[in-house]
Every structure is written in structure tokens, then in C-alpha cells.
């Protein structure tokens, strides 16, 4: 599986109120599940499920937020 490089697009993405972004990870932070809204808003391809969750962390976000 190839690594996913994060490149902030400078685009704000919004969703309808009440819709939830859902991901599930294992104890090592590997994404096991991502719902359709997460995939849509993050532009994270479903084929990348199985990668560490931190691969989608914005470079400006402190590492402590994603546990890295």
C-alpha cells in the first residue's frame, strides 16, 4: 500500500449539520474504518484505509492531537 502525502489545499469543506465524521483505528492508530463523510471531506481514498491515521494530519496540527 502506498503512503498518502498530505498537501493542504487551502479549501474549506463543510457538511450539513448533524452529519458525523467517523473513523475507527486499532491500538497502533491504523485506520480500520472510515465512513463516507470522512472520505468525502478529507479526500482520503478508501483504498488507503489501513494506513496510520496521522497521514491525514495537517502539518500545522500539533502531533499530540493525533497521538504522534
What percentage of the residues does DSSP assign to strands (E)?
5-15%
Give a count of the beta strands, DSSP E runs of length 2 or more: 2
Decide which structural class fits the backbone.
little secondary structure
How much helicity do the residues have? Answer: 10-25%
Largest sheet: 2 strands, antiparallel
Number of contiguous helices: 1
Cα shape: globular
Order of helices and strands: EEH
The rounded Rg comes to 12 Å
Distance between the termini: 21 Å
Uncertain parts:
none
Give the strand order, joined by hyphens, for the main sheet.
1-2
What is the overall pLDDT average? 78
Summarize the structure.
By secondary structure, the protein is low in regular secondary structure. Helix content is 10%, strand content 10%. The model has no long low-confidence stretch (mean pLDDT 78).
Question: Could you characterize the architecture of this molecule?
Answer:
The protein is largely without helices or strands and 68 residues long. It has a domain at 23-66. It is built from one helix and two strands. It has a two-stranded antiparallel sheet. Strand 1 (23-25) and strand 2 (31-34) form a beta hairpin. The longest helix has 7 residues, at 36-42. The radius of gyration is 12 Å and the shape is globular. It starts with 22 loop residues before the first strand and ends in a 26-residue tail after the last helix. 6% of the residues are buried. The mean pLDDT is 78. This is PAS domain-containing protein. It comes from Couchioplanes caeruleus subsp. caeruleus. InterPro entries: PAS-like_dom_sf.
Amino acid at each position: 500500500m502506498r503512503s498518502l502525502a498530505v498537501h493542504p489545499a487551502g479549501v474549506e469543506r463543510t457538511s450539513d449539520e448533524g452529519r458525523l465524521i467517523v473513523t475507527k483505528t486499532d491500538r497502533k492508530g491504523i485506520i480500520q474504518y472510515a465512513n463516507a463523510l470522512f472520505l468525502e471531506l478529507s479526500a482520503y481514498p478508501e483504498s488507503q484505509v489501513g494506513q496510520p491515521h496521522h497521514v491525514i494530519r495537517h502539518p500545522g496540527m500539533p502531533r499530540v492531537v493525533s497521538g504522534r
